[in-house]
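note to self: dont lose this again. the chain is below, predicted strucutre after it. 134 aa total, dont forget to put it in the shared folder this time
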Amino acid sequence: MNNLRIYVVIDQENAVTNEVHENNNLGWAPAIGYGSIVSVEVEQTIPEDYFLYQSYPNPFNPSTTIKYSIPNGDNVSLKIFDILGREVEVLVDEYKNAGTYSVEFNASRFASGVYFYQLQSGRFIETKKMILLR
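---
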């Protein structure tokens, strides 16, 4: 038996509308169940603002996760810089829809030390520090 995943539109009062779709777009929730809707789970919410989270773990060896949120679809750049300000890695350089994303940075080819990661999207720019310990 093939499972069909359908998506429903939730209105402003968090009630399920009569719209049902077989593809997912931001703001829609999958309807879980067979025949009739038994429960609704919201898969993703659109962030209200830009946010660059602290990488984790930090300090790290050899990899860390960098999480960020963008409230609008836009070109996104996530770059890694060494302590001298030299760009050493580009993790993301593409258009992204509004949402929250996680990217793994594997620093196995880099020396121990302080590194910076910078998120740019639209007019938003933020930089944070992380430490690679061997």
